[in-house]
Amino acid sequence: MTSLRLQFLPENPVPLFSNSTLHYAPRTLSFSKVEHRQRRFFPITTSLTDSNYSGVGVGGGGGGLFGATSQVFDVPLLSCNEAIERLKTFRETIKGKQQYLAMYSSIFGGVTTDPAVMVIPMDDHMVHRGHGVFDTAAIMDGYLYELDQHLDRFLRSASMSKIDPPFDRESIRRILIQTVSASKCRKGSLRYWLSSGPGDFQLSPAGCHQSSLYAIVIQDLSLASTSSRGVKVVTSSIPIKPPQFATTKSVNYLPNVLSKMEAEEAGALAGIWLDHEGFVAEGPNMNVAFVTKEKELIMPHFDKILSGCTAKRVLTLAEKLLSKGKLRGIRMKHVTVEEGKSAAEMMLIGSGVLVCPVVQWDEQVIGDGKEGRITKALFNLIVEDMESAPPPVRIPVAY
Fold this sequence. Notes:
The chain is an alpha+beta fold. Helix content is 25%, strand content 25%. The chain contains nine helices and 21 strands. The chain has helices at 80-93, 125-128, 147-160, 169-183, 243-246, 254-265, 309-323, 337-341, 373-388; strands at 4-7, 16-17, 22-25, 28-31, 40-42, 75-77, 98-105, 110-112, 132-140, 143-145, 187-195, 212-220, 231-235, 270-272, 287-291, 296-299, 329-332, 345-350, 354-361, 364-365, 394-396. Strands 2-8-7-12-11-9-10-21 form an eight-stranded mixed beta sheet. Strands 13, 14, 15, 16, 17, 18, 19 and 20 form an eight-stranded mixed beta sheet that branches. A hairpin with a 4-residue loop joins strand 15 and strand 16 (296-299). It starts with a strand and ends with a strand.
């Protein structure tokens, strides 16, 4: 049985792995073919109503490889190879608008392009304690858009979460760029995480061996698809995070998810949070801005909400509209609900939607109920910026 051991060096090109079975050892990597072991079963008395394999289902969850049953049946004890084969089969059954083209993991010290092995350890504290942070960057025509701005926020979030990165900033930056290079993706998004790492299932990260870095390249055909039409939003009833947590981009997104679900149940795209003083705050994963009837672009302060990289770039690009007389002012301020609902234009801003026009908030129609001229102009400016801005706004990827 042949075996290869690798020592990961951040200054060297990131290794690209196939879906060979990986065996992790601290700071080194050994992977080899594992001999097939006889399958064993833990018997659980039940009846099986579906002759097709559907994984392990419990109660009403409908879980399993194909989600076809809610009954419990004999649970197979799988070898490593068998588990990987089932992961591959599971991935092949998923049909969606997103494709995962490459993943980096500091656990195995390299990049894989096989979605079946794009996994993280269950004892990683990001999984069971939510002790992790993340960020993103758009990939446009073979360039990473605002990578450095997002990376700076990423490391600030890590510091606020008391997570020491496993590598220095330049090494992390190089890893992210090389992961995109390995993916061959020229239009999509890069998402990356820092966690306190695997080690145990305790609350404290004291038992974690080392912090972990993960990154994945996503090709999303629905990117910015809502920007060409107006959307509805609702006031969220889900409590907003306290400022200490709202200003950190952590993986603790349960309030965000519940707010999004509440909005979808009401036929809206997103919920709008109000801060503890009743002022307009943000959406579940985007900032919000308004254009007043006096043609002033206003946006809530970032002191109690996440500092949006795309929103900050939009504020910079809006200076062009100011110089042309299309805007009379640009201001960060406390925005009341009354001001927001009576605005001439309202928009959502974020890396996922870019600049998306809002035409209705709760029962109130915004402006004339159509996409506003300033909103459309800002959308065009951000798209143009993504396609042609000079470094360091855009970072070229060597494929």
